[in-house]
Amino acid sequence: MRPRAPRKPLSPRKDQPPSERVQKLLSAAGVGSRREVERWIREGRLQINGEVPALGAKLTPRDRITLDGRPVRLHTPAVKELRVLLFHRSPGDTLDLKAATSRAAEHLNLPRSSGRWLAIQPMPPVDGGLEILTDDGAWAHRVSRGVHALTVDYVLRMRGPLNNELVEEFRAATDCEGEAMSILQADAQYGEGFNHWLNVTVRATRSAQVRHWWAARGIIVSRLMRVRFGPVHLSRELPRGHSRAMLSSERNALVNEIDAAKLAVDAAKLGEPPPGAEEPGSI
Questions:
Q1: pTM of the model
Q2: 262 within 8 A of 110, measured Cβ to Cβ
Q3: Total count of domains within the chain
Q4: CATH number of the domain that 183 lies in?
């Protein structure tokens, strides 16, 4: 008796629509970030065809999606233009991007979007300065995963008895209330009375940590502004409360610097020289 030939795996039907992970598809459509979609699934708020999906479940455009019982319609064009904004936010203005698109646009003077604007490492409401916004969930996910490796510039207005000894102590600071800090540079401009200015360069250090460090030493940070985010600077041509489209060259520079910074951080953890650095004894 002749042995049977092994069966060939069935190829997908040509008329079967492609499937995507629910987090990826909804974030790319601007419905919400991947973390938000995962939270909705855990809370049972997001359903596919009347059932709560598993994390990482795949869906097709034919599936019926509801959020809190309301239908979610995906209007994702075949080729979606990447939109990224540089936004100069005033301290105290809440970056309320979870509101309806129209209300968020009116409140923050942002251009309208078919999806929802997502912020890349947003500043706390009490602080202000440079914010980077996009309505592309995939781009936001890629950039957000690596921005902690970038250097960031803050400008601080200080109120209290600031002196050189405290500035030197801050430069050498490595933690705040148990959280790691990395202060790369701190330059003070002393004013009259109790108001002074401090220009700070940090990496993987949140503005709240900077505020808490100084507050523990009796110095109040009355204003904190982010003026640089990696290779992207907050220019004087961008007034408070206004935004502009980020140029493709600026987007490329940001992504390239994130990739280079992540490689340098990984190399440092392994005790290796940064990529591109010359080894000792090389010519």
A1: 0.69
A2: no
A3: 3
A4: 3.30.2350.10
